[in-house]
Write a structure and sequence with these properties.
The protein is mostly helical. The chain contains 30 helices and 9 strands. Among the domains are: 8-113, no CATH class; 120-185; 190-300, no CATH class; 386-477, no CATH class; 583-706, no CATH class. It has helices spanning 8-13, 23-29, 34-40, 46-62, 74-83, 99-113, 120-136, 141-154, 162-185, 190-198, 210-215, 223-238, 251-263, 266-270, 274-342, 347-358, 360-373, 377-383, 389-402, 412-422, 441-447, 456-472, 494-508, 514-534, 565-577, 583-594, 614-628, 646-655, 659-674, 677-682; strands at residues 406-407, 448-449, 453-454, 476-477, 542-547, 550-555, 686-689, 692-696, 702-706. Strand 8 (692-696) and strand 9 form a beta hairpin. It is extended.
Length: 718
């Protein structure tokens, strides 16, 4: 169990040398100084001297000793033997026959280099450090394992076995989790415990539990989907669990629990102990409250965007349909105006002549038609939304009553209008008291008419459209949302800031007082300004031009470099050799070569074996393509293919695409990648992590090949 987070590659890399070492590594760790040589030459036989030197350099390079001292590259033996003025002895194995000699030499080397053993005192120190890391942050076990290695080497402590350190990481992690789970469970009332337990029940007529239903996020930008998302928020609030304060508990622990609750099957959660089950469900519900608000706002933005596009499309179609009427009316008015200009000196005669030839009714109708069909650009921007007023009227009332908004002072009028619409039912609302200060000029003629008064539907549409624009600009935000909250909400203030001020300043290498730093920046800026001003007359890149608003700085654009013949030839060759294939076909072809998609297993599969489902590989590849291209799953859905239905892809995304399965798939890709002839030509290759693999060229240049899991801000990519 403790070694599950360590892959075979990690175990092979732990405290071992690569197959080959470059000159820099040899010079850094395997050069014997005068004191080193004096200590080594005190040994009696050549194989003892070389063995002692190998163990000395091994501890210096790896931070520990090898079980077999001579499991080092041959270049190490030759380098050390040359420094001692001898060749590599043939009877090296005699050095390892007497174990007591190895232990005596190791103890002597530890004392000589000032290294200590991983005893109870060092175990306590590293345990306390791990415990603090787990409580404060959200470090993965593998990351903490690697950081512990670095910390032990910095403290000159001989590294223990990989299993010892891994068990310590797992034990400390479990202890931190248990402490957080106990603290959470003590804050729950009996009613709240019943609410949490109800999440694991399966409603009558459903195939999934309440937790599974609440974890399902909306996927389509439509009004029914928005209503469903709002109902999801209401169900979560009905549990009355948002009042449990978890702010004083470690954020990393709460985040890890919520991540488990979002991915593990409800049946698996039901088999856990009460403390872990209740803590995980509570963290999941509070996470879902913020996430569901973000999902609602995402659907609202996408829906309003779609309504705006549809309105613009309808306006264009209507415009094309009315061009004939506009041409006829404009032509009639043009002829009338031409005739009128011919009789400008005799105005009464000219008017009678025009009315006699064209008719007063036709001219009035033409004027009205032209006024109707020729609108300004600002009015047109609002008219394209008119086709969406019925849709917005149906969902906007419920939307603003479920979601609470805050914003900057500039949007105070808009927030006042939202509060006005939240106050009571729209049927009994006094629309004449509606705030109008936020209404743009392009909407004023549509929202309010002096003869008919305020148009309620158009007013609601204007509020929705302005709220949509403010949410996009992050000028209006939802405080409880995860992705649409106040961007300034995370800043430290008051006593909390004063307590953290010294630590933050030390980490940023900044002074405690802001005034000296501001004065330094002011002096530097003033010096650059004066230098630029002094050379302005001879500056060929910067010049000042007078405009209506004052002096405007103009920067001369950089001249484009001519493309060399060799670069054009390279571009042509690369383009010619690139296969003409879609990304989806490329992923399927790579899977056919490597079989990486078979490494994606279901979360609660205790056998930890690939799933025998031929259609699963197609579903996994489709989900990876959607995440890599940052598109929704609906873009890769094919209802006639069972492996590409929306429900199937959502199930695969939630239960198969995880960090550990991505690491397994990545290891499969790297294994296939290492077998390519060109990779063997580049170099021996190194593995930095299972999820981040590296190949090293002989020239020293590096290349990377990655697969990463998706996050509120990164998608899987290769």
């Amino acid at each position: 169990m403790p070694l599950l987070f360590l892959s075979d590659t990690d175990l092979e890399r732990y405290a071992t040398f690569p197959k080959t070492l470059n000159a820099e590594e040899l010079n850094r760790h395997f050069v014997l100084g005068p004191q080193d040589l004096a200590l080594v030459l005190e040994r009696r036989r050549d194989y003892n001297r070389l063995g002692f030197a190998v163990q000395l350099c091994t501890l210096r390079a790896l931070g520990t000793f090898l079980e077999s001292p001579f499991e080092v590259p041959d270049v190490v033996l030759r380098t050390l033997a040359r420094q001692m003025g001898m060749g590599v002895p043939r009877d090296l194995k005699r050095y390892a026959r007497r174990e007591m000699t190895l232990y005596e030499h190791q103890k002597l080397i530890l004392d000589y280099l000032g290294y200590g053993m991983f005893d109870k005192f060092e175990t306590f120190r590293i345990t306390r450090w791990m415990y603090r890391k787990f409580l404060v942050g959200d470090a993965r076990p593998l990351e903490l394992f690697e950081e512990a290695i670095i910390k032990l080497r910095d403290r000159k402590v001989a590294l223990p076995a990989a299993s010892t350190l891994a068990r310590l990481v797992v034990r400390v992690r479990e202890r931190a989790s248990q402490k957080a789970e106990l603290a959470i469970s003590r804050r729950l009332s009996p009613e709240q415990v019943l609410s949490l337990e109800s999440l694991l029940l399966v409603p009558e007529g459903e195939r999934k539990s309440n937790l599974d239903l609440l974890r399902r996020a909306p996927v389509r930008p439509s009004a029914p989907s928005l209503i469903t998302a709002l109902e999801r928020i209401e169900k979560l609030r009905a549990l009355k669990l948002d009042g449990v304060d978890l702010s004083d508990l470690p954020y990393g622990r709460i985040k890890m629990m919520s991540r488990q609750g979002m991915t593990v099957w409800a049946y698996t959660i039901s088999q856990w102990g009460p403390l872990k089950r209740h803590a995980t469900l509570l963290a999941t519900v509070q996470h879902l409250l913020g996430r569901s608000l973000s999902d609602v706002l995402d659907v609202f933005e996408r829906l309003m965007h779609q309504l705006g596009l549809n309105g613009h499309y309808r306006w264009q179609k209507e415009r094309l349909r009315n061009l004939k009427d506009l041409d006829e009316s404009a032509g009639l008015l043009g002829k009338a105006m031409k005739l009128l200009l011919e009789y400008t000196k005799k105005r009464p005669i000219a008017r009678d002549k025009v009315l006699e030839q064209f008719g007063e009714a036709k001219l009035k109708e033409a004027v009205l038609q032209v006024e109707k069909l020729t609108t300004g650009a600002d009015v047109r921007d609002s008219e394209v939304w008119l086709s969406a007023q019925n849709s917005v009227w149906n969902f906007f009332s419920r939307f603003i009553k479920v979601v609470a908004f805050e914003g900057t002072p500039v949007n105070a009028g808009l927030l006042e209008a939202v509060t006005f619409l939240q106050s009571e039912s729209w049927r009994v609302l006094d629309w004449e008291k509606a705030p109008r200060g936020f209404v743009p000029r392009s909407w004023k003629t549509l929202v309010y008419d002096k003869s008919t008064g305020l148009n309620a539907k158009t007013y609601v549409l204007c509020v929705a459209q302005q709220l949509y624009l403010a949410l996009k600009a992050r000028a209006v935000y939802a405080p409880l949302s995860l992705r649409h909250q106040n961007p300034r909400a995370g800043l430290l203030e008051g006593e909390v800031w004063e307590a953290k001020r010294v630590e933050v300043a030390r980490n940023l290498n900044m002074p405690l007082q802001a005034k000296p730093e501001l004065e330094r920046l002011e002096t530097a800026l003033d010096g650059q300004y004066l230098q630029t001003l002094a050379t302005l007359s001879t500056n060929t890149v910067l010049k000042m031009e007078k405009t209506s608003s004052g002096l405007q700085p103009i920067l001369t654009p950089l001249e484009a470099l001519e493309t060399s013949l060799s670069l054009r030839h390279l571009q042509t060759e690369v383009t010619r050799r690139m296969p003409k294939i879609d990304l989806s076909e490329l992923v399927l072809e790579v899977n056919a070569y490597t079989g990486f998609a078979r490494e994606f297993i279901v979360l609660n599969d205790r056998k930890n074996a690939p799933t025998e489902d031929p259609d699963l590989e197609l579903s996994v590849c489709a989900v990876l393509v959607a995440q890599a291209c940052n598109i929704s799953l609906s873009s890769v859905v094919k209802p006639d293919v069972p492996a590409l239905t929306l429900k199937r892809l959502m199930h695969v995304q939630q239960n198969y695409i995880r960090n550990d399965t991505l690491m397994r798939a990545n290891a499969k890709l790297v294994e296939a990648h290492a077998g390519l002839p060109i990779v063997r030509h580049w170099g021996q290759g190194e593995a930095d992590r299972p999820a981040r693999c590296r190949f090293v060229q002989d020239s020293g240049q590096c290349g990377w090949f990655e697969i990463r899991s998706s996050s509120p801000k990164s998608a899987p990519r290769t």
